Amino acid sequence: MNDTKPAPGNAATPAQVRIFDTTLRDGEQSPGCSMTPRQKVVMARALAGLGVDVIETGFPASSESDREAARLIAREVRTPVLAVLSRCLPADIEASARALDGAARPRLHVFISTSALHREHKLRMSKAQVLDTAAACVAQARGFVDDVEFSTEDGTRTEREFLAEVVGAAIAAGATTINVPDTLGYTTPEEMRALFAHLIATVPGAREVVFSAHCHDDLGMAVANSLAAIEGGARQVECTINGIGERAGNCAMEELVMALKVRGAWYNADTGIDTRQLVPASKLLSRLVGMPVQRNKAVVGANAFAHESGIHQHGMLRHRGTYEIMNPEDVGWPASKMVLGRHSGRAAVSHRLRALGYTLGEGQLDQAFAGFKALCERQRVVEDRDLEALMHGDIRGDGFRLASMTVSDRGQRASAEIELSDPDGRSIGKRALGDGPVDALFSALAAATGVDLQLESYQVHSVGIGADARGEANLSVRCGDDAWEGTGTSTDVIEASALAWLDIANRVLRARQLQPQRQAAHA
């Protein structure tokens, strides 16, 4: 494979690409992702620790909340450039400039639509009016601050000649950064690379300013288009943590940054990001906005460095490079994960048992592996505590079982009444109230079993189609300092939720029973 194509930097000095983070502005516009001013300050501190060059703190003219957030961040975050977004309207620019009062490194970011579609249907302005407005507003912004960014909204769908004319007018009026957004996620990498190369080569003054890309992910190409823009000469990329943003989101910072790291010989470009902070920043944002990261998300997803297939696990045990192109520690994960499940093979199970202190002969390993496979029929993931229980002969099907349940959601609070059979066959009944049927159900189960679980993630989806479809519930919880996951399946999703909860509770109780044996073994 050829890994030495001509790239943005020279051989001795890779090109430095600025990271412009718009999580707090464009990212927050993602439905369900709004943040309070205080939450924005917390996230801004994390972004500063991550090493981003520019933080876009909000759109001050849009709300008092955005204005307050911009003011708070300006006081507390001093190292990165702090930008605020403004339409090319004099009143908006004035409001934005006031929101930047006290910022150590302020930037005004002004924008106007440039495409024919937007000119006709959104702005109802002629080309000449757009040109005059862009130049006048950049000049106005430059009167407040020295650092002015100008954006051509829907730039990639703008006629190339007119786009060059607007960019030239903005540069002449004092813009120091020119952003050409792919606002609708419409373009392709080949078009993006050619567009930036053309503008930088032909627009007067283009080589005296920084060109920036802002790509949306409507066709799943935001990261690819941003990388192509860098190849075309862009030296700033606008992106968000976890790729959140309008519609399908923005270029995901973690993916762009690691693409430049891993394929450095190809792109010959780099950023100033402390990549070890990518996962912590991703988790912080997820907690702040309540939007979980999909498990198979690149770099920061829970499965990004997880391996369950026996073939992959065997390769990983021989050499990590067989199935990983990045070190998990380099992006903030503690280590790769060998997930033991029904696709795992003998090598992975044997390796994990040895790590737990069990030295087994061939016959003993055969028996343990058979027990492991049987256990995989009852639960998706087998953890260390499950393997220890298996080795001690304590994997039994005689934990708490669901006998009956009634859930009602009438009135102000939901109620749940359940009956369980305990490991000794006795019947236990409990009733509880909750904020919803699932909350009431879990409260009743906790009262019946004596196991207190703190819910972190709860998902229900359909398994199968048509008359054979069943509901599957997946829970992620904490019990004390330990994280647990459980699964339940039933034709009724509420019952599936109860079975998932009991799946975890029974394993927690087995782990507690094994604790004295573990302590004795390690004494």
Automatic annotation (TrEMBL):
Q: Which PROSITE patterns match?
A: AIPM_HOMOCIT_SYNTH_1, AIPM_HOMOCIT_SYNTH_2, PYR_CT
Q: Which InterPro entries match?
A: 2-IPM_HCS-like, 2-isopropylmalate_synth_dimer, AIPM/Hcit_synth_CS, Aldolase_TIM, LeuA/HCS_post-cat, LeuA_allosteric_dom_sf, LeuA_bact_synth, PYR_CT
Q: Region entry Regulatory domain: which residue ranges?
A: 401-523
* Binding positions (Mn(2+)): 26, 214, 216, 250
UniProt entry tagged with the keyword Metal-binding: yes
Cofactor annotation: Mn(2+)
EC number(s) per entry: 2.3.3.13
| Protein name in the entry | 2-isopropylmalate synthase
Q: Which organism is it from?
A: Luteimonas endophytica
> Which lineage do the record's taxonomy fields give for this organism?
Bacteria, Pseudomonadati, Pseudomonadota, Gammaproteobacteria, Lysobacterales
Q: Which gene is annotated as encoding this protein in its UniProt record?
A: leuA
